[in-house]
Design a protein that fits this description.
single chain, 413 residues, alpha+beta, 2 domains, six-stranded mixed β-barrel, two-stranded antiparallel ribbon, 12 strands
């Protein structure tokens, strides 16, 4: 135990003796590991913030709407406006078996919801209960629309977060109260606190949601619908059914099969896949930058150790002359390199975690919480990388020290 203590004491004395060099070397390693930790933790936090915007939204979904035709077809002129209909739902459901959920969505913008003396600008949406399979409504009070509401065309509604806050600023449960929208009174049956930033034909936060059949009757919509919302069965790519659905719609409404403008389609699966690929690229870039900076720091450690070995040629020669084995010299140089690298690296990891914790607290206070931290195993991996780099950085100086001959080292003085 005494020998080990003496060896560690000698290592620390050597490091402190060359304060300037040791500081510059340690700073390179410190900055490298800090960059790695900060980039990885920051990337994870940004991914969490982005994912929060899409929380509760079905990733295997697609949406179909209409636009003016760009080609004449079967006696219909170019530039014709047309609409989707309820009959399209049954056509698609019977012909495309890979579909799990298909439901209509219709909305009306520019309405005003009124409760007592409070007003709130809103959009009115007509939905079926199945729409929850596409966008989770996060009902915190009351319930969502059900099949009985649809069948009986009940004058009931759910309200979004912003509408609730503006009409009921004192809070409380509004279920059972009546609000007026476009001259019609509706009984509130639920409050949705969905905060998804994907607005499909009006967002949940600023909407008053009615049973689809009630909205059809209230606004005299007939069989017309604004959007077809679809989810596919597990394991089925959305892109594999979009062309079939599009052709069924075009055939039913006498739209040219090659008309690229008439049907508007949003593939949510492709959008989420693009976002996932983006963050995969960010993680790879973070590793490349962090490891590159860390490698530069390790090279600096190696260079400093080479200079140290050259300056200590006489000392090493004397130790060899009085019986020190080559293995002892190797262990000494490698230990100095690994200690310097590990101390600087641990400081870099600690500082990086501290900075990330500050970012996490700041985002939580702003209302957009995210996990700006690295995982435990990532920290362990960084420590292992540090130890390996420290050992590699000390190999060349250690072998040079081992090659020193005692007599030549003494003459070097």
């Amino acid at each position: 135990m005494r020998i080990d203590l003496d060896r560690w004491e000698e290592i620390l004395i050597t490091i402190t003796r060359n304060k300037t060099r040791s500081f510059l070397t340690a700073f390179g390693v410190f900055w490298g590991i800090f960059m790695l930790v900060a980039l990885m933790g920051g990337g994870q936090g940004l991914q969490d913030m982005m994912s929060a915007n899409f929380k509760g939204f079905a990733t295997n979904s697609a949406f179909f709407g209409t636009n003016r035709t760009s080609e004449a077809y079967k006696g219909f002129r170019k530039g014709r406006w047309w609409s989707l209909e309820m009959a399209d739902i049954e056509r698609i459901r019977h012909q495309v078996r890979q579909i799990e959920t298909i439901t209509p969505n219709t909305s009306r913008w520019g309405s005003t919801a009124i409760y007592a003396d409070k007003k709130s600008s809103c959009a009115v949406r007509g939905l079926y209960p199945e729409y929850e399979n596409i966008e989770a409504q996060n009902i915190t009070m009351g319930r969502f629309i059900n099949e009985v509401d649809i069948k009986e065309r009940r004058k009931v509604c759910t309200i979004g977060k912003r509408v609730y806050q503006e009409l009921f600023p004192k809070g409380g449960n509004p279920c059972g109260q009546y609000l007026r929208v476009d001259g019609i009174y509706y009984r509130i049956i639920g409050v949705s606190l969905s905060t998804s930033n994907i607005n499909i034909n009006a967002g949940s936060e600023e909407s008053v949601t009615l049973p689809f059949t009630t909205m059809q009757q209230a606004y005299n919509l007939g069989k017309r619908i604004d959007l077809l919302c679809i989810t596919v069965k597990k394991g089925v790519p959305v892109s594999s059914i979009t062309n079939d659905v599009e052709q069924i719609i075009k055939k039913a409404h006498y739209v040219h099969p090659d008309d690229k403008q008439a049907v508007i389609m949003l593939n949510a699966e492709a959008m989420f896949s693009m976002i996932d690929n983006l963050f995969t690229g960010i993680h790879i870039l973070a590793w490349m930058v962090g490891l590159g900076t860390l490698l530069a720091g390790a090279i600096g450690v190696s260079n400093i150790m080479m200079v140290t070995v050259k300056e200590r040629t006489v000392e090493i020669g004397i130790r060899r002359a009085i019986g020190a084995k080559p293995k002892d010299i190797l262990n000494q140089i490698l230990s100095e390199s690994m200690v310097l690298t590990t101390i600087a690296g641990m400081a870099g990891i600690s500082f990086g975690v501290l900075v990330l914790q500050g970012m996490e607290i700041a985002t939580a206070a702003s209302g957009t919480p995210a996990h700006f931290q690295i995982s435990f195993w990532m920290a362990i991996g960084a420590c292992v990388i540090l130890m390996v780099l420290g050992m590699l950085a000390g190999l060349a100086p250690a072998y040079r020290a081992m090659a020193i001959k005692p007599i030549e080292a003494i003459r070097d003085e």
